[in-house]
UniProtKB/TrEMBL annotation:
It holds the Pfam family Rieske_2. Residues 9-123 form the Rieske-like [2Fe-2S] domain. Keywords: Nitrate assimilation, Oxidoreductase. This is Nitrite reductase (NAD(P)H) small subunit. InterPro entries: NirD, Rieske-like_NirD, Rieske_2Fe-2S_sf. It comes from Brachybacterium rhamnosum. Gene3D superfamilies: Rieske [2Fe-2S] iron-sulphur domain. SUPFAM superfamilies: ISP domain (SSF50022).
Length: 138
């Protein structure tokens, strides 16, 4: 799913991002986001607010991959992940779904659509519908 072009804002040049390391950014309304360039060249953006610790630290999280098998499917697939630098909960970077809640309640994170155009990273000004928690104020 991709956001309409008029709801995307330029965040930074792609070359400003370091593969496998997060960067924090602000959207025009003051929303803090975490932006990640993965080794495969994909760029992901999620909320900066860690719903478990209450701190704005997700850009300092660890990225990786996790093997998932969907219900009713035989084939496994690899999904890009983000683990909190605080308590190590893990989310699917593409959907915001919790992969490992560390034994606690599942608190998904908001995901923002991203496009790279002419060497610039553009991020949606609103999270993708259906991602994150309604009570999470980032």
């Amino acid at each position: 799913m991709t956001a309409p072009a008029d709801s995307l804002v330029a965040i930074c040049p792609l070359e400003a991002l370091t593969p496998e390391r997060g960067s924090a950014a602000l959207l025009p309304d003051g929303t803090q986001i975490a932006v990640f360039l993965l080794d495969d060249g994909s760029v992901h953006a999620v909320q900066q607010h860690d719903p478990y610790s209450g701190s704005n630290v997700l850009s300092r999280g660890l990225v990786g991959t996790h093997r998932l098998t969907a219900e009713g499917e035989d084939a496994e697939r690899l999904v890009p992940t983000l683990s909190s630098p605080m308590y190590k909960q893990t989310w699917d970077l593409s959907t915001g779904a919790v992969i490992d809640a560390g034994g606690g309640a599942k608190k998904p994170i908001r995901v923002f659509d991203v496009e790279v155009r002419d060497g610039q990273v553009h991020v949606a000004t609103a999270p993708r519908p259906g991602t994150g928690s309604q009570d999470d104020e980032a």
